[in-house]
Amino acid sequence: MSSSRLPSAKASIRAAAEFAGLWRGQTVVCLASGPSLTPGDVATVQMSGHVVIAVNCTFRVAPWAAVLYAMDRGFWQHYLPEIERTFSGARVGMHLMPARYRLATMKGVSGFRPYNNSGAGAISLAQYGGASRVLMLGYDLQHTGGRAHHHADHPRPLGNARQTSVDRWLVRFSELRTRLDAAGVEYVNCSRATALDWPRMTIEEALRARG
After folding, report:
1. pLDDT at position 4, please?
2. Once rounded to an integer, what is the mean pLDDT over residues 72-96?
3. What does the buried/exposed string (b/e) look like for 116-131 if buried means 16 or more CB atoms within 10 Å of the residue's CB?
4. What is the phi/psi pair of residue 110, to 5°?
5. For 155-198, how does the pLDDT look when each residue is reduced to its tens digit (9 = 90+)?
6. CA angle 168, 174, 177 (to 5 degrees)
7. Which among 191, 173, 93, 177 has a CA at the least distance from the CA of 135?
8. Which of 74, 76, 192, 210 could form a disulfide with 101 if both were Cys (CB 3.0 to 4.6 A apart)?
9. pLDDT at residue 84 tops 80
10. Chain segment 44-57, per-residue pLDDT in tens
């Protein structure tokens, strides 16, 4: 199925199941918020034509992405006005207030696991959608250059990837990797800097390897 058949931004809780198998056999690119993500990387991904899932505030540099995934209700509460103005893709989250934020909630959806981290949840959504290959950018899982994100820090009370949180996330990514392996999903970490010990390529190499 093509990305044009995505559930709309007006999706209700019932629309979450529409993502099942939506990208079967396709490559999906997940753009997370790590500080190593560059505008050049984003432009390369856009030109590739692959389905893209943007994580949290990465919707700002990829307003054309097919999906915006964010786990935390606080994110939706704070950024909703900007999202309404600038992002037209499908919105996906985890809490049970889909009508207020016009998103499909994955909470309680069979076959999906959030891993308590929006970046991992985006990959899990790609798997739920049937992707055979996932390319990852901005998955630093560390404070690269002393920064938490490729954008400015979130205002309080939103969190900004404290090291204790990052350490917990690394454990959850290990669980996610085990599940991807069991499902036969290929994954490539194309992040320019990363603490995540997953197979690595540059984004250009990964796109050439499969087209």
Report:
1. 44
2. 87
3. ebbbbbbbbbbbbbbb
4. -60, 135
5. 676 666 666 666 776 888 999 999 999 999 999 999 998 989 99
6. 145
7. 191
8. 76
9. yes
10. 999 999 999 999 99
11: CB partners within 8 A, 6+ apart: 18, 90, 91, 98, 102, 103, 104
Closest CA to 114 of 134, 91, 93, 132: 93
Q: Are strands 90-93 and 104-105 parallel, antiparallel or unpaired?
A: parallel
CA-based nearest residue to 76, from 101, 54, 102: 101
Asked if residues 27 and 50 have their Cβ atoms less than 8 Å apart, the reply is yes
d(CA 130, CA 178): 16
CB atoms within 10 A of CB 205: 11
**H or E stretch including 47?**
helix 39-48
**200 burial class (0-12, 13-18, 19+ CB within 10 angstroms)?**
middle
pTM of the model: 0.86
Adjacency order of strands within the sheet including 104-105: 104-105, 90-93, 67-69, 51-55, 27-31, 133-137, 186-189
Given a contact cutoff of 8 angstroms between Cβ atoms, the answer to whether 60 and 156 are in contact is no
Mean pLDDT of the chain: 85
Collapse the DSSP code of 155 into the 3-class scheme (helix H, G, I; strand E, B; otherwise coil) and give the result.
Answer: coil
